[in-house]
Amino acid sequence: MTSNGVLVEASGLKKHYPLRTGFLASFLRSGGRRWVRAVDGIDLQIHRGEAVGLVGESGSGKSTTGLVMALLEKPTAGEVRIAGRNPFALQARDLREMRKKVQIIFQDPYLTLDPRFRVIDTVREPLGIHRIGTRDRRQQMAARALEEAGLPKNLVDRYPHELSGGQRQRVAIARAMVLEPEFVVADEPVSMLDVSVRAGIMSLMVRLKEQHQVTYLFISHDLAVCRYMCERIAVMYLGRIVETGDRESLLQEPFHPYTRLLVSAVPVPDPKASRKRVQVSGEIPSSSEIIQGCGFYSRCQEASPECAESVPPLREVAPGRLVACHKV
Predict the structure, then answer these.
(1) CB-count burial class (<10 Å; 0-12, 13-18, 19+) for 255
(2) Are 221 and 56 in contact (CB under 8 A)?
(3) 3-state class of 326 per DSSP?
(4) Residue 24 lies inside a defined structural domain of this protein
(5) Could you give the CA distance from residue 107 to residue 115 in angstroms, rounded to a whole number?
(6) 3-state secondary structure of 137
(7) Distance of CA 253 to the CA centre of its chain
(8) If DSSP codes are grouped into helix, strand and coil, which group holds residue 317?
(9) Cβ neighbours of residue 279 under 8 Å, at least 6 residues apart?
(10) How far apart are CA 53 and CA 49, in angstroms?
(11) Number of structural domains, the chain?
(12) What pLDDT does 27 receive?
């Protein structure tokens, strides 16, 4: 893979799923098959060694974006390029080699570990799948990955049900890192953990990033978490990216009305400080609806007729700041 510049790039990326309905509904419905537009045309670049946060409400398409960029789902349209190569156009051998460099950490450590495997076996398994080293070498590499993840040695022969949630997530992180990946998708890796455990997991991920020069796509609904973990943030709404920028400028001066909504909801640790809350009405529309204009139009206090008629392009409005809004 390349040594600098853009490592991962999504261009016009879409992922649509057929909407499953009952036979009668399908029979009565006109206009053909309906689709859930989970990701509906996004452009995103992630530079080598960078951590980019992808934030938004539930149903915005964050996790689906992560699955496609982690090579676990094929895009409906557009493409993902990793080090300049489209993985979905590669031959099986080349794709297998690329998969070693692209790993994912899932949200729920209770579901992502095989209950029949000991901890050491779980971390060693990817090495066997990719035929790396001898059995003894795999054992050593797995033990080292668990040590780097901060799991005590007396737990490596335990089973997942014998571990706490934080310990399980450390095992999942070690499993992802044992192959020495260059790009890791972290899908809400701390959202299901106790608050007292989150800081340790986040510090671990930051340390591993610096130690191994890993590139992260960090998916979260929590802007405060992204502020700690990421250099740059992309805000996603209804399958599209509506704003990107470096973390401090985006959080200090959000341009898109939806970003302002998210920022206004972040708790302020100073009890004397006041922050004007951005008010919106309604819920996020269904991703199966066909929306001609801006997806945030029905909830936005600043919307104009133009917003209902055309989709605003993602354009640069300040150095390093991209916004998809007709009013900016």
Answers:
(1) buried
(2) yes
(3) coil
(4) no
(5) 17
(6) helix
(7) 23
(8) strand
(9) 301
(10) 13
(11) 1
(12) 47
* Weakest-pLDDT range from 80-84, 111-115, 245-249, 291-295: 291-295
Residue 278 has pLDDT above 80, yes or no: no
Domain membership of residue 242 as a residue range: 6-19+35-267+276-323
- Cα–Cα distance for residue pair 203/184, rounded to 1 Å: 16
Beta bridge partners of 15: 39
Residue 315 belongs to a domain: yes
Quick check: is 27 in a domain? no
Burial label for 196, CB within 10 Å (0-12, 13-18, 19+), is: exposed
How many whole angstroms separate alpha carbon 289 and alpha carbon 283?
A: 13
DSSP state of 311: P
Question: For residue 1, is it within any domain?
Answer: no
3-state percent helix, strand, coil for the chain, nearest multiple of 5: 35, 20, 40
Angle at which helix 165-177 crosses helix 135-148, to 10 degrees, equals: 130
Residue among 107, 35, 33 nearest 70 (CA)? 107
Shortest CA distance to 311 belongs to which of 240, 234, 235, 259?
A: 240
Rounded-to-integer distance, Cα 312 and Cα 297, Å: 11
Contact between 292 and 303 under an 8 Å Cβ cutoff? The reply is: no
Which runs of consecutive H residues, i.e. helices, occur in the chain?
Answer: 23-28, 62-69, 92-101, 119-129, 135-148, 165-177, 195-212, 223-229, 247-252, 257-264, 305-309
Tell me 33's DSSP state: -
CATH number of the domain at 113, please: 3.40.50.300
- pTM for the model stands at 0.90
Distance, in Å, from the CA atom of 14 to the CA atom of 237, rounded to the nearest integer, reads 14
What local confidence, expressed as pLDDT, does residue 272 receive? 64
pLDDT-wise least confident of 109-123, 203-217, 283-297, 305-319: 283-297
- Sorted by sequence, the CB contacts under 8 Å of residue 34 that are 6+ apart come out as 18, 19, 21, 288
Residue 52 contacts residue 230 (beta carbons within 8 Å): yes
Distance of CA 131 to the CA centre of its chain: 28
Q: Where are the beta strands (DSSP E) in 230-276?
A: 232-237, 240-246
